[in-house]
Write a structure and sequence with these properties.
The protein is mainly alpha-helical. The protein contains three helices and no strands.
Length: 72
């Protein structure tokens, strides 16, 4: 039987996250602080290597995916 490993990664920090707001389907960007946090985690190699990336169409999710996996 063929098996696959699936990793779920949450998007970077948004302004709504900082305020404790539920932003749901509101299409908001990642904050500069969120990008800095992603960069630190990426440099620490916390994210797994992968062959394919799927993302929500929300700006925060797409920007996070492109930042973490620019060549995928």
């Amino acid at each position: 039987m063929l098996t696959y490993k699936l990793h779920l990664i949450r998007h970077g920090m948004t302004e709504g996250n900082l305020k404790g707001q539920y932003i749901g389907s509101t299409d908001v960007e990642i904050t500069t602080n969120g990008i800095n946090e992603l960069e630190k985690l990426k440099n620490d190699r916390i994210y797994p290597k992968c062959d394919i990336v799927f993302s929500s169409p929300m700006k925060r999710a797409v920007k996070t995916a492109l930042f973490l996996y620019p060549r995928t």
